[in-house]
Amino acid sequence: MLNERMVALGTQRSVIRELFEFGKQRAAEIGAENVFDFSIGNPSVPSPDAVNETAIRLIKEMDPVVLHGYTSAQGDAGVRQMIADSINSRFGTSYGADSLYVTVGAAAALCCCLNGLCNPGDEVIVFAPYFPEYKVFIEGAGASMKLIPADIEAFQIDFKAFEEAISSKTKAVIVNSPNNPSGAVYSEATIQKLAQILDAKSAEYGQPIYLITDEPYREIAFGGTVVPFIPKYYANTLVCYSWSKSLSLPGERLGYILVPDRVSEHDLVYAAIAGAGRSLGYVNAPGLFQRVCAMCADMTSDISVYETNKDILMKGLTDLGFHVVEPGGTFYMFPRTLEADDVAFCEKAKEYNLLLVPGVGFGCPGHTRISYCVQTETVKRSLDAFEKLAKAYR
Ligand code: PLP
Question: What is the pTM of this model?
Fold first, then answer.
């Protein structure tokens, strides 16, 4: 008998994958330029030239036995120090290599944190709208997910619901800012209030509640929006970072966990994360790209196109009567759908060759995710299709 949970996970097709297949089929029928595929969060801009140049230089110059050999399970020590130096220079901290664990993207970073922290019966709090894989990761760690309904006015946090949800079973809280799918960035006031509640509740229950921050979109913030560095506000924060979006490298699978020095019982928590990495087989992230990412850690791709696209869509959609909370970052926005049933709305959108993801999968029905990491030309041309869609509801 196979593991039924795994069979189910491996067989269910994601809505996004289905849309992707539909898009390919429509493109063959009517031409790719007439399909507005806003379904997938794959960066549309290339990595900075320095990424390929660094990779080529390392291949040419480094001893291949070292370059292609095993690194330490937690990542090459020099790489971890370079990442620490980059964080320190940006946030005025003084972390060392021993606070970093290099991972196969943010996905593995989250899994290592969750598996390292959770025991059976523990609960992990997540705020809607949320990245759907959180549920898979949390349940994979033997814990259960407790979902806080969305604050649909601003996509910040409904603190009343949050406080009521915390109990002695709460092991951790996951936050994702800038947020997939809403594009919202948590304000400093939101982070301060979150930290204050977590401090009070940790004291009340006599055990730490960890804050896991999932930050693949940290660098993609618009118009001077400040993305607070959360470990400064709450001691028991574990940061999960990834270069998938900032350096447009999702296929290379590189990220890290930062376990700040202030985390209580730092060395034990780090050991638990390393143990989880070992038990999951998530050791030694790819060696070449560990080095490339560390050497390019202070750079980003030219992410300005995402803000251009956001501005065009914000204006176009609000003019058409859509209700949209303006994103502070990422390459997503999350407007309300023009009928309560977001799945039916996205089906209707397909009639106009607009591929949009229903909000229900993000725990927030009545909304749809638009992933605008596409060519600006595509965004501009899509407005006509959005107009036809809006008209169908008048
Ligand atoms: N977290 C969020 C919110 C994401 O949107 C993604 C990817 O889209 C991930 C985590 C996983 O990122 P990675 O490619 O680094 O594993």
Answer: 0.97
